[in-house]
Write a structure and sequence with these properties.
The complex is a heterodimer of chains A (252) and B (210). Chain A contains ten helices and eleven strands. Chain A is an alpha/beta fold. The longest helix of chain A has 11 residues. Classes of the chains: A alpha/beta (252), B alpha/beta (210). At the A-B interface, α3 of A face α1, β8, β10 and α6 of B.
């Protein structure tokens, strides 16, 4: 049976992982490659880098990180942030990324999803959706870190990007992100049930029960978390053991 | 020793070449579209990404078909993903003929009845880590039976000769995920993305004396 995936996410800017980490025996707590290697050793199923660099002149730094990471970490690597053109996708894949995630650019130009997946294959294209509840059982797609309401329904948008060729959806609840109150399970389930491509739940994980809930209640195919792993509260291995004890298939 | 990774323009070969370098050492691996380099190599890795009709077209556009067939006849040969599928006679994907090194066809996961044991719908592509049941073969040395490997695919091979099967997997339906005969071993999953067990398989390939 296919394992549910656990994906640590690293926010990277100016070549460093931000939000802090707390691995006790790391030489350099902010080095993305070293952190990715550590997560690999803990049994992470993938690693996601999110490039949160604001200025475009620093964009190429992420390419070097991806190159260095791909030379040492032999699990799938997803990279997002600042992807605007098919050329950006191609450059990240050539640097060693396995999948590229796009968010605002896909909203502004849905053809990008089609063009990119036609060119490099759906399996390489992840569409990140930031969703916020606007009414009971209703979520809208937001851009710019949750500030701009696009007016689009999140479930409809998920179905649309699937039809455009997206291979996977990274679904973040803007209401829950950073709260440690757990995933928005109703949102996760609404999207996971609506599409035939894998859905990664994101936003709000504060403990291991939340990860398990994302799979069992939210029906996500994978769960993504940052702070619970960065700050050393739990290892990926502990998260998997917890999920396995609750009957969830994981790779141990 | 030279390991040639065949580059016919379909997808990114960096992961494959870096994983091979990790186990075989720097300088041991060459990514090439030159038939002469393929012919001179001691071992050949034949990857593939994307749709099989595109892969077949690009292989022929680069004049690499004969070099691949000769390598498959004569030296340790590892097919990966669509590189496995292309060894068979025909694919449902785009209804195209393959290289016909092995008898059999490439099929898509069925549209109906794809549910797991809890009744939940299984999504296609089959993406993620799944268990591989082994049949005895030198390339499984040091890898536990039922170990998980990383898959991304919607099609799989259905060999006409069951003796070719060296590994099976299950995703809604049981399917063949590894085949082998003489000097050829080919897998549907991605050893270059399958962490320790994937590297072990590549290391076994590098040391393989079929």
């Amino acid at each position: 049976m296919l394992a549910k995936r656990i994906i640590p996410c690293l926010d990277v800017t100016a070549g460093r992982v931000v939000k802090g980490t707390n691995f006790v025996d790391l030489r350099d707590a902010g080095d993305p490659v070293e952190i990715a290697r550590r997560y690999d050793a803990q049994g992470a199923d993938e690693v996601t880098f999110l490039d949160i660099t604001a200025s475009s002149d620093q964009r190429d730094i992420i390419l070097h990180i991806v190159e260095a990471c791909a030379a040492e970490v032999f699990i799938p690597l997803t990279v997002g942030g600042g992807v605007r053109k098919v050329e950006d996708v191609r450059r990240l894949l050539n640097a060693g990324a396995d999948k590229v995630s796009m968010n605002t650019a896909a909203v502004q130009n849905p053809d990008l999803v089609f063009d990119a997946s036609s060119k490099v294959g759906s399996q390489c294209i992840v569409v990140a959706i930031d969703a916020k509840q606007t009414a009971p059982g209703k979520w809208n797609v937001f851009t710019h870190g949750g500030r701009n309401d696009t007016g689009m329904d999140a479930v409809d948008w998920a179905k649309r990007v699937e039809s455009l060729g997206a291979g996977e959806i990274l679904l973040t609840s803007m209401d829950r992100d950073g709260t440690k109150n757990g995933f928005d399970l109703a949102l996760t389930r609404a999207v996971a049930d609506a599409v035939g491509i894998p859905v990664i739940a994101s936003g709000g994980v504060g403990n291991l029960q939340h990860l398990a809930d994302g799979v069992t209640e939210g029906r996500a195919d994978a769960v993504l978390a940052a702070s619970i792993f960065h700050f050393g509260e739990y290892t990926v291995r502990e998260a998997k053991e917890y999920m396995a004890a609750r009957g969830i298939e994981v790779r141990l | 020793m030279t390991i040639a990774v065949i580059d016919y323009g379909m997808g990114n070969l960096r992961s494959v070449s870096q994983a091979l370098e990790h186990v075989a050492g720097r300088g041991a691996v060459v990514v090439t579209h030159d038939p002469a380099v393929v012919a001179a190599a001691e071992r050949v890795v034949f990857p593939g990404q994307g749709a099989m009709p595109d892969c077949m077209r690009e292989l022929d556009a680069r004049g690499l078909r004969a070099a691949v067939l000769e390598a498959a006849r004569s030296k340790p040969f590892l097919g990966i993903c669509v590189g496995e599928q292309m060894l068979f006679e025909h694919s449902e994907e785009g209804d195209v003929p393959g290289l016909a090194v092995f008898p059999g066809r490439v099929r898509r996961f069925p549209d109906a009845g794809m549910v797991d044991r809890d009744g939940a719908r299984l999504k296609v592509p089959h993406m993620g880590w799944n268990r591989v049941r082994q049949k005895p073969h030198a390339l499984w040395a040091g890898i536990a039976d039922d170990a998980r490997f990383y898959f991304v695919h919607s099609y799989f091979v259905d060999p006409a000769d069951r003796a070719l099967v060296t590994g099976t997997c299950e995703y809604g339906v049981p399917f063949t995920c590894a085949v082998g005969r003489d000097n050829i071993f080919a897998v549907q999953f991605h050893p270059e993305k399958s962490a320790r067990d994937g590297l072990q398989l590549l290391e076994n390939f590098v040391a393989w004396r079929p």
